[in-house]
Amino acid sequence: MQPLPRVLEHPAALPDEAHRHFAAKLSVETDVSDVAHALRHAPRGWVLVDARSPEAFAARHIPGAQSLPHRSLSAETTAHLNRDELVVVYCWSPACNAGTKAAARFGALGFRVKEMLGGLEYWVREGHATEGTHAAGAPLLDDSQLG
Q: Rounded to an integer, what distance in angstroms lies between the CA atom of residue 39 and that of residue 128?
């Protein structure tokens, strides 16, 4: 008897379990394409937050994003944000968890929040514009920008 292919080693979830799982995942995640579309077509009702260091933000960021480094998030530093609006956070790439840390903190502070999958790296890979002192052609990250 041949072993099962790896994709079949574990039984798939029942359809309604799968639906609940993926709907829950989509309630806390978004992607670059959806954020780009929202920036073009729905500029109100949500805010885009760059969770990286101020230096990384100054070098390169998504147009319209606010710099709120994950390490500095508090009731005081987020007081200017409207709690009725969705917060979408990002960091520099899938290998960076500053966006995840910021999303967790925003949730703890009482905000509705989603994390943009792929971060700035995938924003650039998909050909979207950036702003900053190194907006065009510079590396996405150097050691001084880790944050």
A: 11
Distance, in Å, from the CA atom of 134 to the CA atom of 20, rounded to the nearest integer, reads 42
What span, in angstroms and rounded, lies between the C-alpha atoms of 28 and 88? Answer: 9
Residue located via tokens 């009702």: 45
Please give the residue range of the domain that contains residue 82. 28-132
Quick one: tokens of 51?
A: 């969770």
Query: What span, in angstroms and rounded, lies between the C-alpha atoms of 119 and 50?
Result: 9
Number of structural domains in the chain: 1
Phi, psi of 144 (to 5 degrees): -75, -15
> What average pLDDT score do residues 55-84 get?
97
Q: Evaluate whether residue 88 is within a structural domain.
A: yes
Q: What percent of the chain has pLDDT over 70?
A: 92
Compute the average pLDDT of residues 15-39.
97
143 — pLDDT class (breaks 50, 70, 90): very low
